[in-house]
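Support request from a user on the community tier.

User writes: "When I paste my structure tokens into the form, the page sometimes reloads and wipes my input. The last time it worked, I copied everything first. Here is what I submitted, just in case something in the input itself triggers the reload:"
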């Protein structure tokens, strides 16, 4: 286990567990320490030309350099945003407005930050939208992508690096190569992989990518957009000249400082975190399989080299327990995300599981882990679940 805000306490058997780190992660105390001076003494407006302002401006520019360095970009290619959603919107709207794109391609498995943005552009007549086919485990059909691109010039392609619900990793290297062959604009949502995998934009052929600090132990409400040098930009938010006239509004200074620190920590300890968290995931898989009959895993989430090591999407057998699954876990102090494939009434369910054709009769839970989780918490969470679904033979 890695040090946590309360890790000085002696290790007692857990009575609660947080396994919703794909939704958001706890702030790293070291990140908070880096942010605090910018909430207290360094309060100047970075656009002010006096000393108070200049000090804060320098901190923003240092953060930009740090992030650029960590993804092998140049500082001018980094724009600070309010998070992943804004970056996704920027890439899509920017491509339509500045790059003359008339056709867009995505997949039904994308996050709503991409899907709803492109659907809004389609609804308003800006683009014609096509979806790449995928199989029942969520693997994208890249031959179909190739065919779609061959049929449509001047296309915007948005395909994520890793799926936030089922954890599937997409081969963004190959997708970038296909897009480049057809001179398409390629955006990839790297919200779930930033800080968890090495990202080197010199190895990729993407025009845009996005990061969001709260997914790697940074603060909420801050992220960044990478826009490859030479790709034209028009602002989504109009006003002052901040962020080189691309994103108006006084900068979220302590957020930006925290974002850079969080990414720095994540990248410097990445291999250790990956090994540790993959161990937790393997333990989840082994224990769930041992304790519960007919357990399965949605997408490729149980396949080590094809899924995020932080995400495990569990498919539970048909049972009357499924209705109250999340509620029951919650009252037993286990925080997770759900999302059955059910799409009736007010329960709109998970669009990802629905697209995969998952059986609506089965329960679904996403366990998502971080460096702060422990094996004892895994055991605790499995025990709470097993109480509901224990094997008849056990
Ligand atoms: N894209 C993906 C894949 C995500 O998982 C999320 C958040 O869950 C977002 C975009 C939105 O990011 P933010 O919360 O920073 O707006």
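"...and here is what came back when it finally went through:"
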């Amino acid at each position: 286990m890695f040090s946590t805000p309360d890790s000085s306490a002696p290790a007692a058997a857990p009575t609660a567990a947080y396994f919703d780190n794909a939704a958001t992660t706890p702030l790293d105390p070291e990140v908070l320490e880096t942010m605090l001076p910018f909430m207290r003494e360094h309060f100047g407006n970075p656009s002010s030309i006096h000393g108070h302002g200049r000090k804060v401006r320098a901190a923003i520019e240092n953060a930009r350099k740090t992030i650029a360095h960590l993804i092998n970009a140049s500082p001018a290619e980094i724009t600070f945003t309010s998070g992943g959603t804004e970056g996704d919107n920027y890439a899509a709207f920017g491509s339509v407005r500045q790059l003359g794109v008339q056709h867009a391609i995505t997949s039904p498995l994308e996050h709503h930050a991409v899907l709803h943005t492109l659907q809004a552009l389609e609804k308003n007549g800006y683009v014609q939208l096509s979806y790449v086919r995928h199989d029942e485990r969520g693997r994208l059909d890249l031959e179909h992508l190739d065919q779609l691109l061959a049929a449509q010039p001047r296309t915007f392609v948005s395909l994520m690096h890793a799926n936030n619900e089922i954890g599937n990793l997409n081969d963004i290297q190959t997708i970038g190569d296909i897009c480049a062959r057809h001179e398409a604009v390629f955006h990839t949502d790297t919200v779930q992989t930033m800080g968890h995998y090495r990202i080197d934009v010199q190895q990729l052929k993407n025009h845009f990518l996005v990061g969001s600090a709260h997914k790697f132990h940074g603060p909420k409400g801050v992220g960044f957009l990478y826009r490859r040098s030479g790709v034209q930009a028009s602002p989504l938010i109009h006003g002052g000249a901040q962020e080189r006239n691309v994103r108006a509004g006084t900068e979220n200074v302590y957020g930006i400082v925290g974002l850079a620190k969080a990414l720095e920590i994540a990248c410097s300890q990445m291999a250790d975190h990956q090994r540790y968290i993959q161990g937790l995931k393997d333990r989840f898989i082994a224990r769930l399989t041992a304790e519960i009959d007919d357990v399965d895993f949605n997408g490729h989430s149980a396949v080590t080299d094809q899924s995020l090591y932080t995400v495990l999407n569990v498919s539970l057998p048909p049972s009357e327990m499924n209705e109250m699954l999340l509620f029951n876990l919650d009252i037993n102090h286990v925080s997770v995300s759900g999302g059955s494939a059910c799409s009736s009434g007010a329960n709109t369910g998970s669009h990802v599981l629905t697209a995969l054709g998952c059986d609506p009769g089965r329960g679904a839970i996403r366990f998502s882990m971080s460096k702060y989780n422990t094996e004892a918490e895994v055991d605790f969470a499995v025990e709470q679940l097993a109480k509901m679904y224990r094997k008849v033979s056990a």
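Agent notes: The reload is a front-end session timeout and is unrelated to the input. The mean pLDDT is 93. The domain at 29-268 is CATH 3.40.640.10 (Aspartate Aminotransferase; domain 2). Escalated to web team.
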